[in-house]
Amino acid sequence: MSQIKSQVCGWVEQGHITQEQANTLYRQVTELPDASSWRSLIANLLLWFGALSFASGVIFFFAYNWQSLGRVAKFGLIEVAIVLAIAAFAWLYYRANSLSAAAHSLRHSHSNRSNQCNDSNNSRFGATTANGVLLAASVLVGGLLALVGQTYQTGADPWQLFALWALVIFPFAWVAGFDGLWLLLVGLINLSIGIFLDSFSHLWGAFLDEQSQLLIFICLNLSFYYAFVLLGRNAAGRWHAPILEYACSLFAMGCFTWLITWLIFDDLFKSDGASTWIICGYFAHLIFGFVIFRYRLPRIYPLALGGFSLIAVGAALLSRLMFEDNDPIGGFLFIGLYIILASTGLSIWLKALSRKLKPQSESMSELALKPAARATQGKVGDIHE
Asked: Which helix (H) or strand (E) holds 374?
């Protein structure tokens, strides 16, 4: 399908066909979403909103009735809710595997083929009913930990609550292997580290300034990103979490761009070895990412992040060099022109690269999914089925 679309785009650019003829071809070869696809999307959205609403409702119930409930009632209600959620996850999990095994035994009929397509759409990004229930249980675990700390006044710092919460739900995320829990886990880790650095800033203020703390978040989220990129190359594996990869890379590159811009306006012309190493590390990461995501693991999103980050850093450098001793009017015009031209050129290159890489990525994904599908046909307990 992508090869046909790319060929049609080439015909339009070369003048062999008109845009109206290209639109007609697109309508003929493109599969529009049908009613079942829309029902699947709405069902998934209602599933996640329902799971999160249930967990939030339980927590707000305790907050509103805090004075009316006794200690036993508080712990009993939230523990019963967690146990019921985990039991519902186990039942839905094995029920889905039983239905999947039955569908594999009848996979030659046309009706079962359509049902398998719908199941694969429903389990995209690990979005299954069982995983939605497990997400609610993971949120309730945080409520239980907060209840313990509030009831017994343990004196623990807030960062310990979020760190322990992340540690407890790690088995849930590993079992489920879907984006929602991985994203919650990584978010809790970032939050706990941020609160930890802020709580003890008076102890290491001379060793870790704001720039060093920002560098910690950059290294942490880049480590998560590359770990999931390398471990999640198999689309059917539990480490395949594209939404988490997008979030980690966006947060890391945003912090990296902010840090380099900070250094440009603060320490660029100072003889500071740490600043020099950070700037060299930034450009080394851009080169490394270009080689990896252009030739080894072709992906457009990280290339776009790196390109626009470099444009932002270039604009900051031009602002520092031009506004220090020159008239700012002409400088604003030049910098605005630079941003427009650089962004346009990068967008054109990314669009051309996307057309070139789409057929390759689809063929590679088909080759990767074939052995995974064969391996899971006779296996009971695959959570993504």
From this structure: helix 328-376
Return averaged pLDDT per consecutive 10 residues of the chain, 385 residues in all.
Answer: 60 72 68 75 81 86 83 87 89 77 58 41 58 88 87 77 93 85 93 88 68 90 92 72 91 94 76 79 94 90 94 91 70 87 94 77 48 41 37
Look up tokens 């009632």; give the residue: 73
22, 8 contact by CB (below 8 A) = yes
Pairwise CA distance, residues 44 & 120, whole Å: 12
Long-range contacts of 286-291 (CB under 8 A, 24+ apart): 286/310
CA-to-CA dists, residue 152 to 71, 75, 146, 156, 384, angstroms: 10, 12, 10, 10, 40
Residue type, 134: L
Q: Residues near 264 by Cβ (< 8 Å), separated by ≥ 6?
A: 313, 316, 317, 320
Burial class (CB in 10 A: 0-12, 13-18, 19+), 221: buried
Give the predicted TM-score (pTM) of the model: 0.77
- Kindly report the backbone phi and psi dihedral angles of residue 195, in degrees, each rounded to the nearest multiple of 5, phi listed first: -70, -35
Distance CA 17, CA 21 (A): 6
